[in-house]
Write a structure and sequence with these properties.
Elements (H helix, E strand, L loop, with lengths): L1 H21 L9 H28 L1 H5 L6
């Protein structure tokens, strides 16, 4: 339950910070916080996925070195 809440809470907190700092400069964009949140949600997922993939490869390097590549 905490993991699911964190997946929404982290982009939400970032959206609040972005809206406070950049919201004044972008007054012509309607619903700027919603726009920022819609971009931050997939970006946070992608960034976490790439980070986890890198850690997985480093953590299981013995499996990667066992693969034979003919050359």
């Amino acid at each position: 339950m905490l993991g699911a809440a964190w997946a929404i809470l982290q982009p939400f907190a970032t959206m609040v910070v972005f809206s406070l700092f950049f919201g004044r400069m972008t007054q012509e964009v309607p619903h700027y916080p919603l726009f920022v949140f819609a971009g931050l949600l997939p970006w946070t997922f992608f960034a976490n996925a790439v980070g986890s993939a890198g850690q997985s490869v480093v953590g299981n390097q013995n499996l990667v070195t066992k693969v034979y590549f003919p050359g």
